[in-house]
Structure prediction request, 518 residues.
Amino acid sequence: MKIFILLQMSVRYGALDTTYIYDDDSDDYEFEEELYQHARTVEDSQKVHEKTWWDVALESFLVIYLLITAANNGMIMGYSAVLLPQLKAVNGSLQIDDEMGSWMASINSASIPIGALFSGILMNYFGRKGALLIYVGTVTVGWVFILIAESHTLVLIGRFFGGIATSLGMVPGQVYIAEISHSSKRGSYSSISFIGLSFGILLIYCLGSVLQWRIVAGLSIIIPVVSALMLLYLPESPVWYIRNGNLDKARNACFWFRRNIREALEEVDELVKRVANENREREENPRSTLAMFLSPQVLKPLIIMNVLIMFQSLSGVYLFVFYAVEIISEIGNIEMNHFLVGVITAAVRVAFTIVATISLAFIGRRPIAITSALGAGISAMSLGTILYFSPNPNSYLLAGTLLSYISSSTVGLLILPGMMLGEIFPAKVRALSGSISFSMFSVFTFIITKMYPILKQTFKFYGMFWFFGTISFLAAVYVYIALPETKGKTLNDIEDYFLGNNFLWVTRKTSGTNQEQT
Prediction:
């Protein structure tokens, strides 16, 4: 039996009438040859495949949205570096000690698993866009609590909501980017989010260097409101539409992002086939959610990503985001305004995130990750050695080594784990797997952030940086052994890699389509 579904795809040159065939006897979708010919005719005559000013405008709009949304998370993460020094000042309006300061810095990470747990559910039920709109509401509530805070409790509540919002935005954001991006642009789009993240950290440092912490919280509400207004004009993910049986909207959304009729239709066709195969497999082999997660196709990338996230957190890359000004003021005799040095470190982070974005267009994930980890390890070990042998090191040498650590860790360790969350997991569990991995990130980050006062007292700063250096070197070895190369691969290619007998990269099969770059 064949069911003919008639649809119209509206394009700015008119309407394209297409016939889409579903053969429910074979659970297979096919396109009629006339459809391909029609698509080619439209492309040849109307030049849909050539970029116009309108295509550039739409792509720019998407990029700006990604930057602004990610900046929200950067401002949440970097806010403690602004808040703590002001509250610890002699004339601070809400005096705190190191213990309370560590809670204000780390509670953001402690609450992330709550948002991560619900983000997968929200993504599947309300869509990627719906989850991102809920994120905007949550982050706004967090900033309002801090704005009106007259006690430590309200500040902690605001930071708590900020942590929930971070995961509500980060996981759906990365999944959304991965699902709407062409394989050739997915790395660049994903890393654009981290440019926004780094810019948000820079922005909050700049505001905090000249404004009182309460005013900074109030101004921070503007960014999520702008991102929500922009999101209203973006389509939902085609993958979510297909998984919910809405083929018409999936085709329209895919065309919006691809600006190419034939390419959009072929991509939807491939996605529909994969979903049909998954449904058939689920009917033939019904399994619980736990059993599905224990399948090699899911378990292998889940293990690989969570071990990488552990190395990322323990390398100190995010600890410096939370405690930048405080660390700078305590590690040595840096003869500059400590807030200014914090702003400089944030600016360096932005610059090298841009470097990483450009590099990802030409270089694979693995070489970038290995180079980043080695560079961070060398810089952290050097910084620890300088602090150990010289009680009063040269301020320029100290600042230069510190900036080297920040720049090298930013290029790979900071951005790659989060970027790969949206691409390495199978579509059927992408939302939930991303939520689990982001929860693990928050657990490790909470531990290292909460332990910071103990680390600096027990091991001193030189021992702490030696620890970060050791972890970074181990991360480089781990990436070389285990992390798969995903550059230039479609999401389906990545799924197929783990369907085979591939786990460790060094023991992968390289025949056929699995020929990979080093």
Observations:
- The CA atoms of residues 89 and 95 lie 7 Å apart.
